Every structure is written in C-alpha cells, then in structure tokens.
Amino acid sequence: MQERYEQRTYDTAVPAPAEPADPRRWWVLAVLSLALFVIIVNNGLLNVALPSVMRDLGAGIGTTQWIVDGYALVFAACLLTAGTLSDRYGRKRATLLGVALFGAGTLIALTAAGAAQLVAARAVMGVAAALVMPGTLSILVDVFPQRERPRAIAVWGGTSALGVAAGPVLGGALVAHFWWGSVFLVNLVPVAAVLAAGLVLLPESSAKDPRPADPGGALLGSAAMVGLVYGAIHAAGRGWTSAPVLGAFGAALLAAALFVAWERKAPSPMVDFALLRRPVFLGASAGNMLLFSGLAGTLFVLTQYLQFALGYGALRAGLAIAPVAVAVGAGSAVSPALTRRTGARGAVTAGLATAAAGILTLSAAHGYPVILAGLALTGTGVGVALTPATDTVLGLVPPQRSGNAAALNDTMQELGNAVGVAIVGTVLARRTGAPGAGARIGAAAGTGFTAAAAIVALGALLAAALLPGPERGADRAGKPVPDRM
Question: Can you give 356-405 as a three-state secondary structure string?
Fold first, then answer.
C-alpha cells in the first residue's frame, strides 16, 4: 500500500506544471484546431476538384501535380524559418498573420483564370500555412500541463486527419453545384472565425532565448526540396533516367550536401543535428513523413480513380472517401491505450502497418465495397500512429524549443505530402502515358496505390527499428535534448 501511494505521488508530482493551467486552454485548443483544420482541409478540397480543373484549364496530370505540390512544397520549405520567427516574435502573432495571409491567398485562388495563377495562389497559401502550423502545436504545449498534453495532441492530430478526410466531401459538394474555384470558399468563414477568436483567446508566447533566422540554410534547404520534387514530377513525361530529371536530382543532392555543411558551421543553425541524431526522433518524424507521403499519394490517385474510372460525380466521390474520417477518429480513440501498453514503437508501427495494408487493399479494388474496407484500414492506421509519433517528437525537447521542433516535424510531414504526390502521381502518369482518363486511369491506379502502400510500409519498418518500447519509453522518449543555445 505504501509503495503504491508513493508511486501515485511521484506520477502526479512530476508532470505538474510550474504554474496553474490556463483555464481557457480547451477554448484555445478549439481555435488552434480550427486554424489547423483550414490549412489541412485544402488539399482534400482541391483533390476532388482536379478532374474539373483538368477539363476547364486543359491541364494534364503533371500540371495538377504542381497545383497540389505548389502548396505542400512551399509549406515545407518555409516551415523551419517560420518556426524560428514564431519563437522569436511571438507564436500568437505568427499564427494570426499566417491565417490572414491564407485568406488573401484564398481570394487569389478564387479568381484564378489559369493554371499558373492557381499555382501562384497555392504558393501564397503555402507560405501562410507555414506561419500557422508551428504556432498551433507550440501554443498547445504552452497552455496544457503535461498530464493533459497527450489528450490535447490527440484532438489536434485528429483535427488534422479530419481535415484530410472532410476536404473531399466539402469540395465535392461545391464542385457538384458550382465551378471548381468554389472549393476555396470553404476557407473564408474559418479564417474570419480564427482571427476574431484568436485575438481574444490565444496567449502570446515566445522563446526566452530565440535563435536568429538562418536565411542561408533556408535557401539551401528549399533548393534541395524543390530539386527533389521537380525531378519526381518531371519524370512522368521525360523518364526517371532522362538528363533533366537526373540533373534535378543531382542539384537536389548537391543542395542537401551544402545545406548540411552550412548548418554544421552556422552559429545559429535552423536544424538541430543533435535532435536528428536521435534514433527516436528519426523513427517518429520519418514515420510521420512516410505516412503523410503515402496518404497524400493515395488520395491524389483515388479522387481521380473514382471519377474517371468508376464514373462518380464530384460529390459522390467526396462522400465515398468520407468514411476514412470515422476510421481516423476510431484509431485516435484507441491510440492512447495502445501506446500505454506497447510504447510508441508498438502503436506507431501497428498504425503504419495497418495504413499500408489499407492502401494495398485499394490496389485490388474493382468496386466500392473493397474501397470502403481499404479506407477503413487506412484511416484507423493514421489515427493510431499520428498521436504517439507527434508526442514522442515533442517529448525530446524542452518547452522553450517546442516551436523549432514542431516546425522540423511539420516540415518532414509536408515534404512527405509533396514527395508522395510527386512520386505516386508520376507512377500514375507513366502508366497512363498522357493526361489519362477512363480505362487508362483505372488500369494504372493499382500501381499507384501499391507504390503508396510501399512508402507507408517503409515507415512501419523504421518505427519498429527506432522507436522505444513500453519498458524504455520514458527513458528514451522523455529525455529532452540539451538546449545548446
């Protein structure tokens, strides 16, 4: 009895915050979740509109890849810098500025008259999203005590996954009744609500000793990402071994090498290599990256498969994808209990393996019942894996560095989105041979789904090898990296 009492005292004393928890924290979480929802929902909104964009703008698969990746790539390229600026100048300020800029990008997209203007609007929205996302997680860490943080992160992560799932439904309903640009109308009300409520509810916070911006590192890192995605997208038309594609990959490799050399010598690097050397971080963050990569590629293919091959309208296609949201919620609900029993390794590995199995199921589908089963497995896996992976990453750093760590994790996720659409979309385009539709999309979709499933399965292998199990979880995931700054 005495031993159990002492253990309870220890368990409740260690995670207690230094100050009383913010009484408005759940309202704060609602505002942060809405801000996150609006920047995540946009990929799903646009995915279901891609067939209409292809018809109205005369765009091929390669152009639609840039329309999707124009957002994800700029998002990824700006996240680390945005996280540093957020830590320095204030997370509330950065988040609300990003939301306002997102609204401006939405207005540009609404009036886009061609593919180039639409890509530019998506790039503006990517910059805005980069300002928003690190703050949502950093403010969450600040206002919630450690004992409540996993639950709050579960809500945050569930909102992100819900945005992925809700986008096709909302977008499909709008495209079915209006023009393809109407999908961006969804952004306007949440943007206004976040700006109004955020000014009142969100607390301001910043790092006590923020790192200076690192423009050299930002430029080199962005060049590496652009080269990688450019090469993957243009392989669709030119082939993986063509000179332009190999040149793009070579430039990306060179930029990445220069980035590493620069960051190792920079007085205030934007990437903490002490964190990158931690196997736990690589297992969690790379697992998240590969999960989002496979999911983005899957949805890119599935929305076209449903409309071109199965003859679904935009609304019906969106509703057909919607069950994945229910599955994500179910996975998120069981994730905390599974994590307590199996540690981060068991939960993340199981989630990624389940998602990979679900995507692979889609590759064998010839009708909606099998698609529904695949979506159920995929969504459940996403819900199970996302929260413990994110919580593990944040547990590796002290709270004052949460903005930079969140930005690094988010960068890898968004890079995964961009690379997933680039690689899986290119596999689809190579199989169709041209801007394909109908039977060609139907025949090629299975190969695209198989590629996406392989990407997620690789994440499961990394998680199984690098993440802590139940006995060592507190030691390996709970020790923050020393603050060198």
Answer: HHHHHHHHCCCCHHHHHHHHHHHHHHHHHHHHHHHHHHHCCCCHHHHHHH
- What whole-number distance in Å separates Cα of residue 172 and Cα of residue 246? 38
320, 338, 446, 420: which is closest to 383 by C-alpha? Answer: 338
pLDDT of residue 83 exceeding 70, the answer is: yes
Specify whether the backbone of 437 is left (phi greater than 0), alpha (psi in -120 to 50) or beta.
beta
CA dist 349 and 460 (Å) reads: 5
Using a 10 angstrom Cβ sphere, with 0-12 exposed, 13-18 middle and 19 or more buried, the burial of residue 483 is middle
| Cα(293)–Cα(229) distance, integer angstroms | 12
User: Are the C-beta atoms of 179 and 370 separated by less than 8 Å?
Assistant: no
Task: Identify the weakest region by mean pLDDT among 134-138, 366-370, 410-414, 429-433.
Answer: 429-433
Per-residue tokens: 95: 């988040």
Residue type at 15? P
Locate all alpha helices (DSSP H) within 148-211, ordered by sequence: 149-177, 188-201
**426, 236 contact by CB (below 8 A):** yes
pLDDT for residue 9 is more than 60: no
Rounded to whole angstroms, how far apart are CA atoms 477 and 397? 10
**pLDDT (mean) for 357-385:** 91
DSSP-assigned letters across all residues of 8-31: HHHHHHTT--SSPPPTTHHHHHHH
Give the HSE-up count for residue 396: Cα atoms under 13 Å, Cβ half-sphere: 29
